[in-house]
Amino acid sequence: MQFPKFLLGDNTDYPTAIFIVHTEYPRFIINLENDEVEWLEDFTTEDEKELSSEAEKLIEAATAFYDREIGRYED
Fold first, then answer.
1. HEC states along the chain?
2. CA-based Rg of the chain, rounded to a whole angstrom?
3. Residue 3: CA atoms inside 13 Å, Cβ hemisphere, count?
4. What gap in Å lies between CA 69 and CA 25, rounded to an integer?
5. φ/ψ bin of 35: left (φ > 0), alpha (ψ from -120 to 50), beta (otherwise)
């Protein structure tokens, strides 16, 4: 089964949280309520160096995805 690059999620245990799941490497979940990121990968020290430069772009893309999705609901 193939998944979209981003998924929008919520959970009634966290009523004010908005979760975006990034399904491609490096996989992560970001809570847009507080910008907390949970990485779903184990990284080596080398990976972490590379990730630091890429992480900001990925989080911006996740936020843009959310804005696009919400815009579609408003239409």
1. CCCCCEEEEEECCEEEEEEEEECCCCCEEEECCCCEEEECCCCCHHHHHHHHHHHHHHHHHHHHHHHHHHHHHHC
2. 13
3. 10
4. 22
5. left
Length of the chain: 75
34 pLDDT band, cuts 50/70/90, is: very high
Pairwise CA distance, residues 42 & 72, whole Å: 34
The model's pLDDT over 41-57, given as tens digits with 9 standing for 90+, comes to 998 888 887 888 788 89
